[in-house]
Specification:
With 346 residues, the protein is α/β, with parallel strands linked by helices. Helix content is 34%, strand content 20%. The chain is globular and about 60 Å long.
Length: 346
Amino acid sequence: MADRDARGMSRERSEPTRSRASLAAGGRREIVIGSRGSKLALWQSNYVKDQVEAITGLPVEIRVIKTTGDKVLDVPLAKVGGKGLFTKEIEVELAAGRVDLAVHSMKDVPTELPEGLVIVAMPPRVDPRDAIVSGKGYSLDSLPHGAKVGTSSLRRIAQLRHLRPDACVVDVRGNLDTRMRKAEEGELDAVILAAAGITRMGWADRITHYIEPEQMVSAVGQGAIGIEIREDDAFMADVCAQIADADTMACVAAERVVMRTLEGGCQVPIGARANIDGERMRIDAVVGSIDGTTIVRHSLDGSAFDPEGLGAAMVERLLELGAGDVLADIRAAAEADVGVDRLIET
């Protein structure tokens, strides 16, 4: 058995092997995963499927479930409103027992989960940076004046406008390949996307520039896959424990404290990224106005064995630096029905 650290998970894992879970399946003849239907979502679900089949020896079915975020493609996510745009419908099926586990991109998972459900595991994270795809090979710095840059993320919009106030932000939705082709074929000068999704799809050679965290702090949970189960399902908890990566779960835990405490989501430009080096954790976080004129940013270092404590310390520091005022202005504008779409077009 692998050594376990103070966070309760193995630091290094070999290929999953059949364990006591395969002997205690509770009479199950198969396991059902609930997943979105995009190519990236299915890649992630198939990755988990292979792991679960190897551990349990049971066949695993992937059941595609369409979410609100999949259905509404002609409106910016920030304008759609609500939480769980890419998870709610899957969670309904999970809670009802019609699927055994759900596979999500952690950046899409609200910090408050439905009663009775829990994120039980995250496999090793992939590169959490944002990346630029551009048919002309532009980087963030080399974009021409007034460049048309595609993104639907308020977090990216705020930081982009702070760095490049001349850029023209264009809302882009749709599947990953479609968004990339808009830049590659010249409809846009560039699009900003999560490097992890592009890498998982085998398209890393299409990335023209990686945006380092010193320029743009990534989304909470970006690059991490989350596995959600019913909290009373001991069998699935035992199976998923063998897939979990301790460092990934600790980093995302710290990031999600920032999001949860500041009440962030698709409607608020908040970013947080943590990484571990030995027994130390560093977290970078940002809160910005949508027009990019105000950016509150900070970095903290602390023990990797208290990720939530470090996340809480980050929140305290951001508030001291004025993040609360930035968030209050954004929420006041929303309540006054100024319209997020109008703020995006500023």
